[in-house]
Amino acid sequence: MTGVGLTPLVEPVEALSREEIERYARHLSLPGIGLEGQRRLRAASVLVIGAGGLGSPVLSYLAAAGIGSLTVIDDDVVESSNLQRQIIHRDADVARPKVDSAAAALHRLDPTLHVRPIAGRLTPDNALELFASHDVVIDGADNFATRYLSNDAAELTGTTLVWGTIFRFAGQVSTFVPGHGPMLRDLFPDIPEADSVPNCAEGGVFGVLCGTVGSAMATEAIKLICGIGEPFIGRLLRYDALAGEYSTLRFSSDPDRPAVTDLAEVAAACAATASSGVGSGVEEFEPTELADSREQVMLVDVREDWERESSSIPGSVHVPLALIRDRGWNALSGVIDGEAHAADTVNDLVIHCKSGARSAEAVGILAGTAPAGVRLRSLAGGIDAWAAQQ
């Protein structure tokens, strides 16, 4: 039952209490876990990056399995749109920091569990210390920069890293153990552009997929802590929910890949991600200006149809981002010509989406094809910022 030459990551605690023996009885009868494995789980400390779609099942199952100490880091707050998949949170938690909501849920499950919530982002300034102080790190981040920061911090500190990602109906899982197999950069050498793949708000995500992939990630952590089974070292698990198919891609270390020596490259990527996706040269329009300038600007909504069913800014016109990507300025020309007040507003357009990322992209696309003299701006913070001041 021992895993591919790896020794258990954690030395066991001396003993379990009577209550713990009763609680974890179904583990104690499992070959390879038993009393000693459960004592290892109780001694383990795990850092979970993200309390969202993947973090929810990871945190829940690790807490239930008897992990002794969990640290969760996330800088976001709970939104109603999270509840479709982020099952650690409840409706009553909307607007609450995700780490606080998650910590409360974990303590409901196991009041004796040590939970350390960190309301912030994983950054080059805190990554090395956090990684070095935990036995395993599980990366459930939703952006490329943080995933590569996790890889590089793991390589520099020698910390075991379990990695997973989801998109629409598909997910992937792998495990990276420095010195015992390839790392993320052996599989995907370069950090992709931050906007090269749509985020959940744009592309959507199949809610139950998070449970499948997150459970696989939690399974990897337990196997590594106990030293059982064969972790996904040098293997990428791929799951297609619609086809109902799993596949495994084997990969190896690249002998020509430069070793990670610092966090300089990934620090630049993190800085770019933290800028909220607004590119250089994209002019912003503050929501507070909208009331006084409504008759002087045309407000263009680039969200999807279903998003406007939920809420929209009165007087806005609808031109989906996909259409702008496909047709550039021509996507807007017909809409503008059809507006009764077009002659007054055609030269001053304010583009908006939910939070500002998609509208910034639209402004960047339109800037290259718009007629001379047209002013293009992105509504800072999108409809969320506008709604907050109403």
Describe the structure in your own words:
- The protein is α/β, with parallel strands linked by helices.
- The protein folds into two domains: 18-274, Rossmann fold (3-Layer(aba) Sandwich); 284-388, 3-Layer(aba) Sandwich (Oxidized Rhodanese, domain 1), CATH 3.40.250.
- The chain has helices spanning 18-23, 25-28, 34-43, 55-65, 98-109, 127-132, 144-157, 184-187, 200-203, 207-226, 264-274, 290-293, 305-310, 321-327, 330-338, 342-345, 357-367, 382-388; strands spanning 45-49, 69-74, 114-119, 136-139, 160-167, 170-176, 235-240, 245-250, 284-285, 298-301, 317-318, 348-352, 375-379.
- The radius of gyration is 24 Å and the shape is elongated.
- The N and C termini lie far apart (60 Å).
- The relative contact order is 0.10.
List keywords for this structure.
390 residues, alpha/beta, Rossmann fold, Oxidized Rhodanese, domain 1, eight-stranded mixed sheet, five-stranded parallel sheet, 17% strand, elongated
The share of residues in helices is 25-40%
Strand order of the largest sheet: 3-2-1-4-5-6-7-8
Number of helices: 18
Quaternary state of this entry equals single chain
CATH first level of the largest domain:
Alpha Beta
What structural class do helix, strand and pairing data support?
A: alpha/beta
Report the sheet with the most strands, covering strand number, pairing sense and barrel closure: 8 strands, mixed
